[in-house]
Amino acid sequence: MQANVQHGGEQPGEDPKDMRAIFVQTLLSKRSEAISGRASSGIEEEWTEDEEHYQGIDDANRAYQNANQLFRSRKAALTGTAPSTNGPSRSVVFLNITRPYTDAASARVADMLLPTDDRAWEIKPTPLPKLSPSQLTQLATSMGMADPAEAQAQIEANQAQAKQAATKMQQAIEDPLVESNWHGEVRQVIEDAARIGSGVLKGPFPIQRTQRMVRRDPVTQMTAVVRVDSIQPGSKRIDPWNFFPDAACGENLHNGSHTWEREYIGKRQIKMMLSDPSYDRDELLAALREGPARTRQGTEAVYRASDDEYEMWIFYGHCASDQLRTVGVELDEGDEDRVPTMAVLINDRLVKATQSPVENGEFPYDILAWQRRPGMPWGMGISRQIRTVQRMLNGSTRAMMDNSGLSAAPQIVIGNGITPEDGRHSISPGKVWRANSEADVQDVRAAFSAFVVPSVQTELMNIINFCLKMAEDTTGMPAMLQGIRGDAPNTLGGMQMQNNNATSVLRRLAKRFDDYLTRPHIQRYFDWMMSYSDDESIKGDFEIDVRASSALVERDAQQQFLMSLLQVSANPVYELDPAKLAAELCKGQRLDPKNFQLDEQQKAQRAQLPPDPVAIAKAKLLEAQTRKVESDRSETDMKTLYSGVQTAQVLATDPGVAPLADELAQSVGVEDQNGGTIVPQLAEAAMTQPEPVSVPSSTDPLTPTSPALGFQDGIETPEADGLQ
Fold first, then answer.
1. Whole-model pTM?
2. pLDDT, tens digit, for every residue of 219-274?
3. How far apart are CA 22 and CA 24, in angstroms?
4. Measured between alpha carbons, how far is 154 from 140 in angstroms, rounded to an integer?
5. What span, in angstroms and rounded, lies between the C-alpha atoms of 117 and 555?
6. Tens digit of pLDDT for each residue in 493-515?
7. How far apart are CA 416 and CA 447, in angstroms?
8. CB burial string 195-218: b at 16+ within 10 A, e below
9. Which burial class, exposed, middle or buried, applies to 293 when counting CB atoms under 10 A from its CB (0-12, 13-18, 19+)?
């Protein structure tokens, strides 16, 4: 049975040019479906509104915007299709809060998801199962080994080799990403997603890179710069306005049958394609002779391309193998009926057709949706979320400006028969008015009346403040994320709690970033390296661990806690490493700690340097202070010893003082250290009662018998004689 012509089957006698034309018409019909499908979804109108609000444009001020407005808006204003502005003069102020909220959100997300010293993915070998002794013995027998320990050693060696290969694979993937300016391209994707809800990243796709090497001639010793061209994978950001997926893809563009990418190029780029054998030279020359097509396909992007630029369309999808053979694509005999294909059209001319560089047929595109939309691959961004609040703010601000203009000057009422001297009924300083004879007032002061329009600035300002508060709630971007503390508690714990609450929305977006962009993108790079890399040592059974995006968000919120840990790390009790804590703080501030840390050579040099004079002086000062403390203590001990010796001498001379001294010491709080008496002889004397001593009587006045009688003993006195 003969093949159907519509599927590209070449029948005897058919012209290959006609078959090529049929294939091109098939591609053009698919392109028309993708273009009309995106236009009918209504997403382009929303993108236009989001772009205009980001630029601060609406129907009221469109006629006054000349520099930054979109091409379609400027065209509508010039052709008169924009809404009419005839009517009373009203305020057209656009108090743009869409742009700062969008920029703050994209900048915050990019800072957390694109660190300078870390990556959001990691290549790991698949874990090896732990075998039981019986399984290990069975494995050793199957491997021809007598000892199961040899099989265990072989497994461990293979695991170490797999880890080394995984590290090499990670470096092999990271190298083209760095050359493609991964951080810069992904940052633009995040900005697109914040502005219009969707960002598109392409990769890996083949890029011709030129490397320069310097070689020295061994004979002449002359050096020369040698340019080496190589095909390497790369990634880049695609403008969502220039990307057209299959209309039947649903929420995942990889569920569709094809994708189209539009790109504008100049003559110089087409001339560079002439040196690439994969392009059709005749078709390229024909496109150069024709010049850029005047009819543009699809909705134009934000800014209109120059008329001197060519419109190039890149197709990815599955095509019939017989159609590809018709246009000169070399296929193997065992290939399937439908083969993953990549085709390039310029001026609707097929300038390139080849098999897709991704062997499994997956499209080299990823869409990052800021907030998902049911049934669509496109998302909803900050501009759309804040649109209602922006309109409320514009309305209240314009009403306040209108009210301010009306209440700034009074309304003047002029009676009949009052005419101005200059014939113009307008108020100006020093103007002369004349009362005619037919004036209906006798008192000219009653001919003029002034009325002041009430000012409602306070009420309108309350509405404006309400709008600003609603902007935070509708976008999920608190003012704290924009550098405004607001009503956050002025404590470390309070700030930490509010920071965790504020980053909850960002953590959700970080997980979407992992699922919708990082994982599939790195997986395609892994497949590319497995298919096209010449280094067999990097290939193996690996898995992609996408773990850092949400971890990076958490790390950013932990900066305050790390700062407090750094302050106590000098205390050896906590067993913390200050160097590691400082490195983590640098990572949180988007700084590479390697730029500040000492390398091994500097550490060795520092170890060989003489001690720091300041440190030596401090050590000597501490030693001198220690000696002084010891000297003061010795002096105190000597003084105490000397006082003790003096006390002992007093007690030895007069033992009766000892009990009194003990009572005095106890009254001031002195505790007895040995529990004994100070003078033991005094204690023994206290135990023995003294014998009574007889006092001799004496009548000699010079030697009285007792001190109580004194010198009066034995002397007759008037009292003794009875004389009173």
1. 0.70
2. 877 887 777 778 889 999 999 999 999 999 989 999 999 999 999 999 999 998 99
3. 5
4. 10
5. 13
6. 444 445 555 556 677 788 888 88
7. 8
8. bbbbbbbbbbbbbeeeeeeeeeee
9. middle
